């Protein structure tokens, strides 16, 4: 044995023999065809974690709500629990776990001072969506946030300091170990940062608030990137215009050359598309706007120049003409986009991010949790290349499904159907057929000029996920 070890060529041969044996065991135990798997395998979603930020505003009611469609076969067990994201993890809402898929869960979180961690396991994690809404107790007021999952990178597109009086970032860490985050901001004249946005410590099962207001002054647009270099955080961004003109800014899609912003509410006031080029190369973008009347023609929609590592904006008021709409952005460099909306008096604001479509057998379903009492929900759909269809099923507080509503979505148009649903209902939206559908929900309290609105995209709520393909190559055996 000593002679073999001292001979490096013999030792190399032993290593090769060992790898070959391991390679064969991997192929046998995984049952993989040497030619590779013919198609991707799927597995049920069995766990999910969302963190809802502390509610903002005084003398207002906040409700955290969830709805899960459950496993496709209707079997299995699961539970949903809610607790403060603190070391003590005090329970939120009913003391026991919630175990009924297809039924609405909600809890009053008006007095929450820490993030609320909603944890789902088993079949309660399949097709799950969690949202937190705050409404006025006396006067119309509406803000809503889709409770985010913890991540290592999150992007936002928001107005700058010319429009806003405040921009605050909330970071929640669900893990026991500390996390560290950095925040990059892209303004009209370039990047902006400070010592306060570098190496932000978020203690285990804790949260941190970062005030970005001073860093966005003088800019009409601000794109915010939260990234961690240790651990993970759930990031939420709150924008304040003054008075009742405040709302959560939904996370938007990561930098790409093509984006779709669905669910832009109709109505008067400003509608501004925010675009930022996050690289060192300037970008040129073309914009297409689709309304219920079709694609809008407007001379301002082509050739939008975006400086490198900076943001700009484009008015959509003319192309939209106070109608609900969908914006498509095509750029020659990766960009980040979103839409900011407000009424002419500035007393109501809302934000729409870029979002993926509902499409395919796994990602063709979206879930809308219960709306707070005294509010109304409307859905906005769009199809781009081909005609599409969706089925909307309301779900009342007792878990009873209402009559499904078939929605026809013509190609190249935005559609806002009239939906009849009981107050406080949630919705399950399923795309019919294989054509991608872009969709959003608009939450409204009040009516007319006193109405308050908030907008959220409808994102896929899968019950099953695709597993990565594995074949019998050395890369699948040796990392």
Automatic annotation (TrEMBL):
Cited InterPro entries: DUF5719 (IPR043777)
UniProt-annotated stretches for the region Disordered: 36-62
Entry protein name: Secreted protein
């Amino acid at each position: 044995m000593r002679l073999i070890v001292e001979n490096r060529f013999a030792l190399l041969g032993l290593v090769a023999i060992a790898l070959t044996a391991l390679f064969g065991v991997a192929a046998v135990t995984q049952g993989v065809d040497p030619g590779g798997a013919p198609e991707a395998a799927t597995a049920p979603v069995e766990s999910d974690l969302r963190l809802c930020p502390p509610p903002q505003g005084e003398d207002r009611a906040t409700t955290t709500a969830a709805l899960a469609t459950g496993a496709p076969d209707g079997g299995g067990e699961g539970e949903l629990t809610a607790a403060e994201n603190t070391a003590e993890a005090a329970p939120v809402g009913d003391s026991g776990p919630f175990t009924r898929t297809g039924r609405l869960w909600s809890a009053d979180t008006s007095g929450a001072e820490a993030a609320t961690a909603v944890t789902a396991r088993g079949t309660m994690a399949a097709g799950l969506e969690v949202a937190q809404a705050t409404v006025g107790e006396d006067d119309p007021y509406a803000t809503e946030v889709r409770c985010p999952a913890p991540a290592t990178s999150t992007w936002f597109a928001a107005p700058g300091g010319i429009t806003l009086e405040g921009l605050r970032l909330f970071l929640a860490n669900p893990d026991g170990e500390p996390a560290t985050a950095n925040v990059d901001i892209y303004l009209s004249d370039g990047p902006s940062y400070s010592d306060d946005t570098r190496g932000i410590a978020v203690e285990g099962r804790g949260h941190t608030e970062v005030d970005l207001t001073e860093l966005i002054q003088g800019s009409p647009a601000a794109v915010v990137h939260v990234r961690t270099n240790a651990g993970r955080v759930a990031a939420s961004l709150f924008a304040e215009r003054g008075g009742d003109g405040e709302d959560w800014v939904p996370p938007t899609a990561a930098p790409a050359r093509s984006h779709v912003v669905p669910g832009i509410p109709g109505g008067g006031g400003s509608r501004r598309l925010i675009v930022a080029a996050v690289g060192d190369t300037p970008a040129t973008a073309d914009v297409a706007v689709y309304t219920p009347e079709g694609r809008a023609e407007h001379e301002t929609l082509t050739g939008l120049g975006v400086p490198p590592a900076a943001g700009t904006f484009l008015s959509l008021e003319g192309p939209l003409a106070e109608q609900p709409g969908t914006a498509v952005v095509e750029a020659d460099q990766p960009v980040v986009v979103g839409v900011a909306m407000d009424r002419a008096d500035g007393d109501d604001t809302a934000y729409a991010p870029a979002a993926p479509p509902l499409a395919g057998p796994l990602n063709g379903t979206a879930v809308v949790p219960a709306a707070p009492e005294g509010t109304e929900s409307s859905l906005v759909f769009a199809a781009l290349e081909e005609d599409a269809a969706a089925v909307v099923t309301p779900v009342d507080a007792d878990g009873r499904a209402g009559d499904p509503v078939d929605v026809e979505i013509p190609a190249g148009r935005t559609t806002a159907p009239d939906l009849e649903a009981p107050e406080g209902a949630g919705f399950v939206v399923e795309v019919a057929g294989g054509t991608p559908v872009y969709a959003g929900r608009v939450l409204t309290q009040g009516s007319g000029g006193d109405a308050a609105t908030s907008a959220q995209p409808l994102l896929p709520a899968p019950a099953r996920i695709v597993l990565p393909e594995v074949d019998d190559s050395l890369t699948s055996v040796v990392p």
